[in-house]
TrEMBL record:
Keyword tags: Transferase
Protein source organism: Bradyrhizobium erythrophlei
Protein origin, superkingdom: Bacteria
Domain Histidine phosphotransferase ChpT C-terminal: 89-208
Protein name as catalogued: Histidine phosphotransferase ChpT
A GO MF term: transferase activity
Length: 215
């Protein structure tokens, strides 16, 4: 018997759609739940301080939910007709709204150009992967590789205790033996996007940083 694991079977179209829906729901359930909690506090005729706390919670959670929805629509959804092009400036706005917070900042060094939809979706998914490597926060530096129609991307994540999840690196590889579930679908989908763009996506350590490249 060989000690090499065979690649896990790829999910079919229906299963992939279901897994991506699960991923989006996972991203939204926390802020939506917080909105519900805030409304429940308001229903109890709270004291002025509690009322202001509830309203602040609702405002912040609604803003978070909106940013995540807009990001997910572009990163996972149709986001326009087949063959559509997307402005990288819009992608930057979506990425900042979803990924930037008091712990994580984005250094965006890409030109403002129109790119094919799948290439922009690939970039946003690469940024999600990069963010996962700096759980304590840090900086995501986004640079182009090449230019024009053949442009690729480099997203470097630097921060305290940056780490490279091997399971994600494996899922980005076409020979991965890992099963694809709701937790693994995002890097798997990133790989599919890269293949659709004629690129290869790789996650690897680079000094104190972890870098995702598509070229």
């Amino acid at each position: 018997m060989s000690g090499t694991s065979s690649p896990a079977p790829a999910p079919d179209a229906l299963e992939l759609a279901a897994l991506l829906c699960s991923r989006v729901c996972h991203d939204l359930i926390s802020p939506v739940g917080a909105i519900v909690n805030g409304l429940e506090v308001l229903d109890d005729n709270p004291k002025p301080d509690d009322r202001e706390f509830a309203l602040d919670l609702i405002r912040k959670s609604a803003k978070t939910a909106s940013a995540r929805l807009q990001f997910c629509r572009l990163a996972f959804g149709a986001a326009g007709s087949s063959g559509a092009q997307i402005d990288l400036g819009d992608a930057q706005t979506m990425a900042r709204g979803h990924l930037e917070d008091n712990k994580t900042t984005i250094a965006w060094n890409l030109p403002r150009v129109l790119l094919p939809k799948n290439k922009v979706k690939l970039l946003l998914n690469m940024m999600v992967i990069a963010q996962q490597t700096i759980p304590r926060g840090g900086t995501l530096t986004v640079d182009p590789i090449g230019e024009g129609d053949s442009i690729g991307f480099r997203v470097a994540a630097s921060g305290l205790n940056a780490r490279m999840p091997q399971n994600i690196a494996d899922l980005l590889s076409s020979g991965s033996a890992s099963a694809v579930d709701a937790h693994a679908v995002q890097p798997y989908y990133t790989r599919l996007l890269a293949q659709a763009c004629g690129l290869k996506v790789v996650l690897a350590p680079e000094g104190d940083a972890v870098v995702v490249t598509a070229s």
